[in-house]
């Protein structure tokens, strides 16, 4: 597949990625290489990745525990300390091998260590390939609040090798599918319609779906790198989805949700709001709701869950001047940003989701 030119870097696919990486290592005079992994990618992905790197430079592996709960500043501090102890300098290269937690956190660690060193992302989950691979967002959570601390800083390149998807369980694949569905809903109606009948999809050719999803996000980000305007479209499903994800993460009585599972709920809720605001038709809303519910299990919400979820909306990064900002669908394939939504309508959306 042809590489995609992003804003200041290139996204390479499969064999082309390793060729580009090795060529870069030959041309750039790095002092050493650090590979950041979590406990999962250290076991399942690193053994494939290491033999494909052609370099005589010293390589050190830094591992942290897998999971969203470790995407925090404490993990960053421990990695900064390891980098320092093992002699990382301004000419060090960091390779982030993992899902969105690894690439977000590893990108932030690299962007802030000695005021910034080069890093390359190698996403290994479907979610990180179609979402975290593009846009330059790096960062960590603040307590249970998603991605509150971070910077926008692009990698040297991104290498997407879809063979890593063979290491994923089905729920992780579904999690990534949520972002792919979102890209169709906000930008490309034809792409959305390809997912209406999953049985008809040729998963042997799934690389083309991944490629199109990356291209969609890239087309949006290039227009608005710092999220002042159209890039806000990518937040569809995330205003409520992130609040739900944060609430389930902090509540010991709840099972922690994968990012895509929470976003799937958010997209249904925010599609309902779009319908109530007359931005989409009832038929379009029903199609969205039924398609997503056919892929994702229902999440159970108790009556006393809603108030703390709404409370978490106050901390959403997209808020401006104290008001909660939504990106809503304005017909499938189009978006309307900076939409204010009252709590009563949000409560109605949750009631509809449970029906």
From TrEMBL:
Q: Name one GO molecular function term.
A: metal ion binding
Instruction: Give the GO biological process terms.
Output: aromatic amino acid family biosynthetic process; chorismate biosynthetic process
Q: Which UniProt keywords apply?
A: Cobalt, Lyase, Metal-binding, NAD, Nucleotide-binding, Zinc
Gene3D superfamilies named among the record's database cross-references? 3.40.50.1970, Dehydroquinate synthase-like - alpha domain
Name what cofactor the protein needs. NAD(+); Zn(2+); Co(2+)
Give the protein's function: Catalyzes the conversion of 3-deoxy-D-arabino-heptulosonate 7-phosphate (DAHP) to dehydroquinate (DHQ).
Protein name according to UniProt: 3-dehydroquinate synthase
- What is the organism field in this record? Flavobacterium psychrotolerans
